[in-house]
Amino acid sequence: MAQSLAEINIHLIFSTQFRYAFLNDHIRPNLFCYMAALAKKQGSHVYEIGGVADHAHVLLTLPRTMMLAQLVMLLKKESSKWIKREHDVAAFAWQNGYGAFSVSSSKIAVVRRYIREQEKHHQQNTFQDEMRLFLKHTRLSFDEKYLWD
Length: 149
Fold this sequence. Notes:
The chain is built from five helices and four strands; from the N terminus they run βαββαβααα. The protein has helices at residues 28-41, 68-87, 108-116, 118-121, 127-138; strands at residues 9-15, 46-52, 55-61, 99-102. It is globular, with a radius of gyration of 15 Å. The termini are far apart.
């Protein structure tokens, strides 16, 4: 094949450090637009970005020429700098880790709806509960003592 083609859809989930509720209603919309612009600049197609005060969900394609860890590092590093600069939140930090889950093209609409309904979802479930359910659903093994920071 003369051309390299790929569509790898990823649902990223990451929290603020210690799940501090830094991402208020004023910060979130602009933050998510900024993160989308960062990802698009790298060649990613962004389907949806959303979240609540203590974490974010990003549904996007992995750029063909970039490793997942590089993309996540870029999104977290640059958005962290942006929050500190634009919203004067010097103590802001993202958690060290992240969750990344593959998404079938046929499930994009379902995941987009899930991300849009984060506020409703988190009226009953914590971020930790949500991550445990994702990990259980995907059968990804983990040691809980290393899961949170």
